[in-house]
Amino acid sequence: MVKVVAVLYPGGRAAQQVPELLGCAENVLGLRPMLESRGHQLVALTDTGAELDQHLPTTNVLIATPFWPAYITRERMERAPNLKLLLTAGVGSDHFDLQAAADHGITVAEITGSNVVSVAEHVVMQILALVRNFIPAYQEVLSGGWDIGKIAARSHDLEDKTVGIYGLGRIGQRVAARLKPFDVRVLYYDNRRLSAVEEQVLGVRYVPLEAMLPLCDVVSINAPLTPATDRFFDKHRLGQMKKGAYLVNTARGRIVDTDALVEALKSGQLAGYAGDVWYPQPAPRDHPWRTMPNHAMTPHVSGTSLEAQKRYADGVRDCLLRFLDGRPLERDYLIVDGGKIVSPSYAYAYAARS
Predict the structure, then answer these.
(1) What is the extent of the structural domain holding 176?
(2) What radius of gyration do the chain's Cα atoms show?
(3) Is 41 a catalytic residue?
(4) For 69-113, how does the pLDDT look when each residue is reduced to its tens digit (9 = 90+)?
């Protein structure tokens, strides 16, 4: 018998009303019939702390989502001698200590590509929300007001603006493609430069980061969290950005320094910030980003539309079936395999750190 533990968000009443809400603990990715019919045990948790710790010594496979993350540290892995597979139901496995997983021979996989459309659409939505000053306009309606001047004084057209994309992977490329109809100039920085043909198709131009930041009216962060990007947008880099620019971050909260961002918004260095990623997650009630000025934050929901949940639930099911049958996992899903970090993005960053 294999014991599978899934740490997922609580669906509450919505879990009963919407069966397509697969990513919650109640519906547990639709895995229960398949696993239990094969004689395996499935435990679904919402508690990422003490309750999870009780199960670790007997867990063989652990599943967690990036937006309700179970932070699996080296210490936790050492208390889980039977753990063989860590699965991210979604994209982004920074809530697992990847080097520790490699050292312990634990395979780590995520469902690559499952959320790219969902997140890219969220990015464009939040860019527009900031630039058009949508949140204050909506709040004006709720409060019963009609102060056109107050709203219009901070509202701009997106057309003819310069948008910079930090990290032009699967999501970043889709953001660029979706911005083309808005007639914006799109610059990008990534460790890997695209070919001239790829740049032409997407309508993007490569610029070194130090040169890109002062040129951009909007910057979108679409890079993974690694040792190299941890708090990468600190006080210095936020200060390099064009005064009055907007920053959108749907990648990981820890890529932006928490206190430096609050200071940049209060001082007016940045005109606004949007995103749906925080650190830690779930964000505590007193997290300073909840109350900082000129923000358009959401909980970490960009990559968990109902369509995305179906995609990552299918991917998790495929990984589990392969694992149970002794077959290799899909290569594109693998982050850590055979005692090595094999995902190019993570491997590069960890190698640079060492």
Answers:
(1) 116-297
(2) 21
(3) no
(4) 999 999 999 999 999 999 999 999 999 999 999 999 999 999 999
Active site residue 252: yes
Q: Which residues lie below 8 Å from residue 149, measured CB to CB, with a gap of 6+?
A: none
What is the reported pLDDT for 348? Answer: 60
> Of these residues, 27, 115, 173, 309, which one is catalytic?
115
Q: Which of these is catalytic: 237, 252, 295, 311?
A: 252
Asked if 271 and 298 count as a contact pair (C-beta separation under 8 A), the reply is no
CA–CA separation, 221 and 123 (whole Å) = 9
As to burial, measured by CB atoms within 10 angstroms (0-12 exposed, 13-18 middle, 19+ buried), residue 182 is: middle
Distance, in Å, from the CA atom of 185 to the CA atom of 193, rounded to the nearest integer, reads: 17
133 and 28 belong to one structural domain: no
For residue 177, what pLDDT is reported?
A: 98
Joined tokens for residue 11: 């669906």
pTM for this model (two decimals)? 0.94
B/e letters for 113-138, b = 16+ CB within 10 Å, e = fewer, are: ebbbbbbbebbbbbbebbbebbbebe
- 37 and 88 within one domain: yes
For the record, the structure tokens of 108 come out as: 């780590």
Dmax of the chain from CA atoms?
Answer: 66
State the pLDDT at residue 346: 80
Is 281 an active-site residue?
yes
The residue whose two tokens read 């469902």 is: 111
Select which of 40, 76, 295, 300 is catalytic: 300
Structural domains of the chain, count: 2
Distance, first Cα to last Cα, the chain: 39
The number of angstroms, rounded, from the C-alpha of 236 to the middle of its chain's C-alpha atoms is: 23
Alpha helices by DSSP H, 18-89: 32-37, 50-55, 74-78
| Size of the chain in residues | 354
Q: Which residues of the chain have pLDDT under 50?
A: none
Which domain CATH number covers 182? 3.40.50.720
Active site residue 300: yes
Catalytic residue among 27, 269, 281, 294: 281
Q: Using omega within 30 degrees of 0 as the cis cutoff, is the peptide bond preceding 19 cis?
A: no
